Amino acid sequence: MKKVTLCLITIAMMASCKNKSETIPEETRGESSSSISDDVLESAVIYEANIRQYSPEGTFNAFTKDIPKLKDLGVKIIWVMPVYPISIKNRKATGGGFVSDIKDEKERAKYLGSYYAIANYTEINPEFGTEEDFQNLVDTAHKNGMFVILDWVANHTGWDHPWIENHPEYYTQNAAGEIIDPLNPETGESWGWTDTADLNYENKDLWKAMTAEMKYWVEEHNIDGFRADVAGEVPTEFWEQAVEKIQKIKPVFMLAESEDKDLFHKAFDMGYNWEGFHIMNEMAQGKKTVTDWDAYMIKIDTLYQEDDILMNFVTNHDENSWSGTVKERLGDASETMLALTYTIPGMPLIYSGQEYDLDRRLLFFENDSIPKTKGKVWPVFEKLGKLKNKSKALNGGKNAADYNRLKTSSDEKVLAFEREKQGEKLVYIANMSKEPVSFTLDLQGTFEDYMNSKPVDLKADQEMNFKPWEYKILLIK
Question: Which of 100, 318, 345, 393 is most deeply buried (CB count within 10 A of its CB)?
Answer without folding.
Answer: 345
